[in-house]
Amino acid sequence: MIRYLQGAKTSRPTRIDTPPTKSTEESIIESGFGAGTLTLAGATREFTLVWKLGDEQGRRALPAGAYGLRTIRVEKLQGKQPWFISSTGPTLPAKTYAAGESQVFAFDATIRFAGQARTGKHGHLQLGFQIQAPDDRGLSVYRGDKRVPVTFRVLDAKQKELASGTMNYG
Fold it and tell me: Do the Cβ atoms of 53 and 18 come closer than 8 Å?
């Protein structure tokens, strides 16, 4: 996105959503997080690897090379309702994916939530929240196609409620 805003020529990542052929020039990637997508950025190309619900154990072939994680989306079903977390941030340092090797791409889907409350200049309560993945990248939680808002309560030292509500983010 930044490259696009800076006027650089950009292209969409190449989508990989089928099992690999028997090429020895590719690295085989298996999902260690279940269904979802991950976008890996190389020096000149980007690839989005896709695992659909029901195909979580599928293997995907990636041209051998060094790639950094750009985005990841982990999908789950709760009953018939799809949920997913989406994590985006600066591209993480590149990792080498060697030809003929197979690797499991693992992702810690822990959600880190941090909040703070303080009194502003005029006695108004100021709130700040951070929702992040363990690698400090921004994280959003979705139910269906809607971002799940944060419900909060702020208590004083005596457990008296000072504020509560729902906040949208992202």
Answer: no
| pTM summary value | 0.76
Q: CATH code at 70?
A: 2.60.40
Q: How far apart are alpha carbons 134 and 111 in whole angstroms?
A: 7
The domain containing residue 163 runs over which residues?
112-167
Are residue 98 and residue 116 in the same domain, yes or no? no
Task: Write the CB contacts of 122 (distance below 8 Å, at least 6 apart in sequence).
Answer: none
Task: Please identify, among 84, 105, 126, the residue that sits at the C-terminal boundary of a domain.
Answer: 105
Residue bearing tokens 């941030």: 89
End-to-end CA distance of the chain: 16
Distances 153 to 10, 81, 102, 115, 128 between C-alpha atoms, Å = 43, 27, 46, 10, 12
Query: What's the domain count of the chain?
Result: 2
Dump pLDDT digits (tens) for 80-92.
888 888 888 777 8
How many Å apart are CA 68 and CA 21, to the nearest integer?
23
